[in-house]
Amino acid sequence: MSSPEPPQIEPPDFTMTLDMNILQHLGLKMYTSLPAVISEYVANAWDAGATEVDINIPTEESMTDDYEITVTDNGVGMSYDEVEEKFLVVGRNRRQDEDADIVEIRGMERPVMGRKGIGKLAGFGVAGKVVTKTYKDGKFVEFELDYEEMKEEGDEENPADTSSYDPDIVDWGTGSPEWGGDELTHGTRVTLTELERERKPTLRYIKERIARRFSVIDEDFVVRVNGETVEATDRGLKRDCVYVEEYDDTIEDSEGNEYEVNGWIGVTDGPVSDEDQKGVAVMARGKLVQEPSFYGESTASGGQFGLAYIVGEIHADFVDRDDLDLISTDRSSLAWGKEPATQLRDWLQDELVSVADEGSKIRQEESVEEAKETESYDERIENLPDDKKEEIDEFIGKASEHRNFESGEKDEFIERVAEGAEKEVFTDFLVDMKEVDVANTDAVFDLFDRWEVLDALELMQVARGRLETISTFRKLIESGNQHGTQVHEFISENPWVLEPRWDYVDDEVNYREEVTDQYPAEHVHDNPDDRLKILCLGYGENLNIVEILKPDDEITRQNLESLEMYVDYLREYVREEDDIYRSVSGYVIAGSVSSDASRKAQRLQRDDIYGRSYERMQEIAESTFDQFLSVFKEKAEKTGDPRLLNRVETLEQEAAGD
Fold first, then answer.
1. Are 74 and 180 in contact (CB under 8 A)?
2. Does residue 136 sit in helix, strand or coil?
3. Cα–Cα dist 341/327, whole Å
4. Distance of CA 649 to the CA centre of its chain
């Protein structure tokens, strides 16, 4: 670093006033995700009129004490007075101070992103020290905020009491930034050190997350990560869609006030992976304000399976208006219980259903085309009369939306459909369904009696699939080689092994990070390695936290008490921050429940908190299969169809031999 300037330049003297509540809740506990932290400094660069932002995140170095992350911009920078009177003022509302939502800076008009004056503390969510170096009007200053020193100055016993903290002045003087070339005279660099991370971030992950958090990235606002320019295409979502609905719409609150909404919602070719954060995000002023979500919706025609294909980005600048106060403090979710956020949620739910239904139609059409490539369709359905074939295609599309067909091969499902069609059961049902008088009970019952054959065939497919799943689950647990990722993926794909009613769940990454950051394994487990994984799974309006322990571990009273803490924390968090989830349940999974914890486990069930052994999960899965098989057997016996009775016997034999 350069030496201090001659005596004629007085060293700056900075003082910061804060309380421990703000430091802890608006620093450490708000910004626990690295992309969220970096995004706050990118937003600051935007507000400073920057046209270029360079983020440097070493991806080759190990996570040593020397590891650091920098965010550098060519914005207007800050004078000594501006650092003292603006930057170091926690809670400063720039829009109110300057009485403007849109400001002109460096010849550009820009909507102000910052609002609550707390983004400067974001770095403490992942780092112990935040060093800021800023240049303006030929002068520069470099100062350091140290979290441990700030805590020492504060009163942890009375965290609401204010205290003063003097940042360490590392360097000051005259000159120009060492970055950006000879012509650059202004700019700011933020350096995060003493990072609280175990794994290095990947370049692709950071680029994707930054791209998804900002819609203003273009030739006038260039953001680079390790020298690679972040492009709008790095969001990697819209380009993967097979169907996109564009919006330029308005919504109306209960008093008739109108608010503009625009953006897009699309359907991807395949189910969106957990990492991609399926769902629709909300942006305001070019920045993410609501993480992707389904907003409690689960009623699309394809059920939540249909929602698994949905992504989108909706722009609603009105949610960032000061007079509405709809954005949560961490700027990652909205206060959905307030108007007009409530109307926005209703609008989102309606559009999610509409787009998911369109996606379902597309998948049905694709399913039919794939079915037509099978040998079974070609031999048994292709030559049927056009009207019958059209009805069969309609049924195949609806019944096979998530089924795969092998081109040129025989397919059991198509074979059964063909057999039903030959007996007129299938086509008669479709024709009669349109004509039957639903008020005529006898006619309706007669119609469904004739439909039992094909209904039983579809049920048989579900039963067989679950039988195979049970076998896979048993092998996974008995292998002794499973780890958190394997169990995580298995439960996410087959949530019914944990709760039979769950046909599909949302993998809530943000909630998972919130809990793991609040309750690290080393703080709640004698052996941190006992925790394989923590999951947060959304089902409808219920959020479920699942802690997965090793299969050879017992669930102890301590494990149950820890689970109670997680659930209590999330219930309070959801109550204050989220209007999507209305309840929180908890599960801890291990090899068995210890004898001293069994009574407590039984009591906690009344509070929707459960201790589950892997053996119990297997019993639930097998019981679910038995229920499917029982219904299938009942339908087979009711119809008297020998083929169905034969399939019942085969399935029973397969289950007994598994």
1. yes
2. strand
3. 10
4. 43
DSSP E strands, 74-126:
102-105, 108-111
In contact, 164 and 54? CB cutoff 8 Å: no
* Least confident among 273-277, 333-337, 561-565: 273-277
In DSSP notation, 232-282 reads: GGGG-SGGGEEEEEEEEEEEE-TT--EEEEEEEEEEESSPPPGGG--EEEE
β-bridge partners, 564? none
Phi-psi region of 99 (alpha: psi -120 to 50; beta: other; left: phi over 0): left
pTM over 0.90: no
Residue 448, pLDDT score: 45
Residues in CB range of 225: below 8 A, 6 or more apart: 55, 56, 57, 203, 206, 207, 210
Q: How many residues does the chain have?
A: 658
Sign of CA dihedral 302, 306, 312, 317: positive
Report d(CA 146, CA 124) in Å as an integer.
Answer: 9
DSSP string, 376-438: HHHHHTTTS-HHHHHHHHHHHHHH-TT----TTS--HHHHHHHHHHHTTHHHHHHHHHHH--T
Per-residue pLDDT, averaged over 336-347, amounts to 92
Cα(356)–Cα(3) distance, rounded to whole angstroms? 62
Residue range 550-573, pLDDT digits in tens:
777 899 999 999 999 999 999 988
Question: What average pLDDT does range 123-152 have in this prediction?
Answer: 91
Cα three-residue angle 167-24-147, rounded to 5 degrees: 30
3-state DSSP assignment of residue 322: coil
Cα 505 from chain centre: 11
Give the integer Cα–Cα distance in Å for 488 and 503: 16
Give the number of other CB atoms < 10 A from CB of residue 107.
6
Domains and their CATH numbers in the chain: 16-233 (3.30.565.10), 237-348 (3.30.230), 364-462 (no CATH), 468-620 (no CATH)
Q: Which two tokens stand for residue 509?
A: 């990454």
Would you give the DSSP letter of residue 614? Answer: H
Which helix (H) or strand (E) is 586 found in, with range? strand 583-590
Residues 443/444/448/450 CA torsion (nearest 10 deg): 20
554 vs 386: CA distance, rounded Å: 62
In whole angstroms, what is the distance from residue 656 CA to residue 146 CA? 64
Backbone Cα Rg of the chain? 29
pLDDT tens profile 476-518: 766 655 555 676 677 767 777 777 777 667 778 888 888 988 8
Helix extents (H) in 48-184: 80-82, 94-98, 147-153
**H or E element that contains 204:** helix 203-213
Measure the CA angle with vertex 222, ends 217 and 226; round to 5°. 115
